Each structure stands twice: as C-alpha cells, then as structure tokens.
C-alpha cells in the first residue's frame, strides 16, 4: 500500500467500535458521572505516588526543550464523561507547574515569566463516548487548553512525538474485543454458561490473557511513538498480585453473582441459553509479571514503577450493604454492554436486582474472600 494511504488507514483504524462499552451518560440513575466515586477514591489513593514521580523523575527541562516551545501536552486515555478525569488532570497539571516553579527557584538560569509552560490536555475516549457531556462539564476555571480526541487507545491517536505525559485511570483493563475462542463452540476455550474467566476453566483464562497481550502490546507501541523521548506514561488500573486468582477477589465474586443471576433468568425461560453462552465481559486483570513482559518486549520504555498497590476496599468494610453498591457501580460501568446484548431497562433491572440479591445472600463468603483489597496496578514508564 502507498505510504499516504497506509497512514490514513492507520488513523482511521482507531475510530472502529471496540467491544468495550462507553459509560452511561444523560438523565439516567446509572450515569457514570454520578456513580464513579469508587474509581475516584482508587485514584486518590495513588496520588502521592504520582506526586513523587513528577517531582523526582520528570525531566521537565529536557521535555520542554524537546517540545520546541513552552507547551506541555498531557493526554488522559479513557477519560469518559467526567468528573474524575478533570480531577486527575488538574492534579497532574498542578504538580508539573509546581515542579517548574521549583526548577526556576533552584536553577541558575533565570527564566522570563513568558517561558512558564502552558498546558494542553487531550481527553481521549472511544468515538461513541459522550464528548458533549464531557465538554459541557469542563471546569470553567481550568488552567489548561482542552481538546477531545476520539479513537481507541490500542492504536495511534496522536501524532509522532507529540505528548509529554500520557495518563490512564481505570481503563487499560478493557479489551478491544471478547477473545473469539470463548464464544466458539468448537474451541476448548468455549466459555459455556459463564460470562468471564474468573471461575472458568484454564483455556478460557489463556484466551483472555492472549487478547490482553495483543491489546496492551498495541497500546504500548502506539504510546512509544506518540511520547517524546523522556516523556512519561502512567497507568493505573485493576490488576492482581502475582500468584492470585481473579476468583479470589471481590470483583471476581461480584461478577460471579451477576453470572448466577443471568443463569437464573435462563432457567426461568426469560433469557435463552445461547444469549448467556454468547456473552462475555471484555475485561482482563493482569498480574505484574504479564505487564513487565510486555514492557520488556516493547523495548522503548524504562520502567520506573510497576507494582500492585492495594487500597483497602471500602465496600468490604461496609459489609453487605456496601457490597451491593458494587452491583450499581458495575451497572454504571457496563450498562451499555449488557443492554447491547440482552435488551432494555427491564431485563437489566432483573439481571442487576438478581445480582444484588445473590451478593446479599453470599455477603459472608465475599467478606471473607482471600483478597480484602481492590488491587490496582500502578505502572510508570519513561520513553527512552
Ligand atoms: C471506567 S471508565 C474510567 C473513566 C475515567 N478514567 C475515570 O477514572 O473515572 C473506562 C473508560 O475507558 C474507555 N475505554 C475503554 N476502552 C477504550 C479504548 N480502547 N480506547 C479509548 N477508551 C477506552 C471507556 O469508554 C470508558 O470511558
């Protein structure tokens, strides 16, 4: 293919619809903006790490020199509709500004006021994200220039060497598609009667892992081209400590309860067995060793931090009532995905009400789950 055509094709490929849903917006009780405080708390728990990272590892002088001006460009990948994204990017901008002020106070070179960096923040999400809702709620007092960038973060969405810091919160565990083998009746990985790999046989987990490798491989390749040399990539998303099974976590238990609720509806004849067999959640919770392997294969990044951090689960502390909050949070995050496959509001109410009921019945077991935290992977990489 001619280079120009190939380039156009590459840019267009990011606009394809993935299997992962966008978050609920609009006038809906499961609107993500009103049901994402758990994600916000998780990100707040890792703020001190990001502060330390920017203060100690970000080579601001080099980055601004590399950018050829005084604009510092930040991307939030998988921003959704707010408000968490604004909270997260404001924190980053504030920290980089502080770093600049500190640099100026301690540096021998006197800076003229006009050389203070200006910030441009790119809000990226899938094409069908409600960008209008996002733009309408942009903080009026912000001290950065804002732009929306539609397209899948598994592919290129920015020009070559254009970003100084790319950040992604609670998003990188979404796969671009359900692994095809898990809905293939002829495959040993056919996930009959199940909606995820947590409580499924090993070939199912292997198929999910292979899909994550493909997607995260593409994600890292794209970022390695988009970040300037010395630029940083910070990812925070649900993962698992090495050696732990997904079924040993609260998230695993909650997904299992949703699965049981759908199974009940199949038994009652409300849903077809096929509908259940053909439905799988496109999310994967990697272990640190898997991410490390992918970073090493990519070869373009130095690894600054790659570990599991485990904020204590407030849902678990609250007992059964808090656990049912999981079902609401899951619905806010996945309603579109369930609706696309199972149908409208009424059936979704039945699925999630049933899941809440199952969670209540099993609260004791879930509270005693092996993993009492919400394990997150914190990954900080520097472009070589
Ligand atoms: C749980 S929300 C997280 C939103 C926000 N970062 C936060 O911390 O609240 C996950 C977001 O990732 C987005 N997402 C999933 N797959 C994506 C992809 N391939 N490319 C871009 N965004 C994606 C979804 O559309 C969704 O808005």
UniProtKB/TrEMBL annotation:
Any Pfam family hit: Methyltransf_7
Entry keyword set: Magnesium, Metal-binding, Methyltransferase, Transferase
SUPFAM superfamilies documented for this protein: S-adenosyl-L-methionine-dependent methyltransferases
GO-annotated molecular function: metal ion binding; methyltransferase activity
Tagged with keyword Oxidoreductase: no
Region of interest: Disordered: 1-25
GO BP term (any one): methylation
Residue spans of biased composition, Polar residues class: 14-24
The protein's name: S-adenosylmethionine-dependent methyltransferase
